[in-house]
Design brief:
alpha+beta; 7 helices; elongated
């Protein structure tokens, strides 16, 4: 599933071509993705100007000058294509401006598109309970200390809880915990202050590095330009079970299951 850096890369790619542009045509090639398209999507978006694009957690937001925001989630396999040379079977939503065409392609149809009043975005059910953005000022040692206090659940699973930090996914939690030297199975309430002080900048650094590299190309993901991200080549632990730790500490990366997902870590340097 595209994670936060992939969504951020997508939003930035779309913004170059869409911000300030008027949408002249909207086409729906089917009635739904994971759930039905908004009934008034075509009516509201046709003729509207895209003011800005932004991201909240793993959602992309297309803000319109009509007081509405189109929210998209890429699901398992969704991606935007800009000026596609040929149509694809799974191009389910098409947007056109005077200069470009945009196709939302989603073969598995696990993505979604919603239309919400811009002034009520924080009240939208999927956003109402979200924690702070990991790349914003809300993520701090103080926030994590308060949110994790007394929790016996592992730090790995707590960081995946969107109510604690919005937008973190499996890949980047594994990578951040390695950078911070924290064992993913450690009870969250027992993570020390010094460890949290390492964890916050580790989360920021790994996300920013992935965004800089265009995301991690896993399975179907590609940026709107069609370019493939290459951060996957920089993974320190993710998918590296059986390989030596990059810290040359004698450790060998292990893979375990947590909450139905795989976790990779070094048993030597992560305490």
């Amino acid at each position: 599933m595209p994670e936060l850096p992939e969504v951020e890369t997508t939003v930035r790619g779309l913004a170059k071509f869409l911000e300030g542009e008027r949408i002249t045509r909207v086409v729906l090639n089917r009635a739904d993705l994971r759930r039905p398209f908004p009934a008034d999507l075509v009516q509201v978006m046709t003729g509207a100007t895209v003011s800005t694009l932004s991201r909240r957690a793993k959602y992309g937001l297309m803000h319109l000058d009509r007081g509405a925001t189109m929210i998209f989630h890429l699901g398992m396999s969704g991606r935007w294509r800009i000026d596609p040379e040929t149509p694809e079977t799974h191009d389910h939503l098409l947007l056109e401006t005077a200069h470009h065409r945009f196709a939302l392609c989603d073969p598995r149809r696990f993505g979604s598109v919603d239309l919400v009043a811009t002034g009520a975005l924080n009240l939208w059910p999927q956003f109402a309970a979200l924690g702070p953005e990991p790349l914003g000022p809300g993520l701090s040692v103080g926030h994590l200390k308060a949110a994790l206090k007394g929790k016996t659940q592992s730090i790995k699973l707590c960081l995946l809880d969107q109510r604690i930090v919005a937008g973190l996914g499996n890949i980047y939690v594994c990578e951040a915990l390695w950078r911070a030297g924290i064992r993913p199975t450690k009870p969250a309430g027992k993570v020390t202050g010094p460890q949290l002080a390492r964890l916050v900048p580790a989360i920021v650094a790994v996300l920013e590095a992935s965004i800089r590299d265009g995301g991690s190309t896993l399975r179907d993901y590609a940026a709107p330009s069609g370019e493939l991200g290459y951060f996957a080549s920089s993974f320190d632990v993710y998918g590296r079970d059986g390989q030596p730790c990059r810290r040359d500490d004698g450790g060998v990366i292990e893979r375990i299951a947590q909450g139905g997902r795989s976790t990779w870590f070094c048993p030597v340097c992560q305490k």
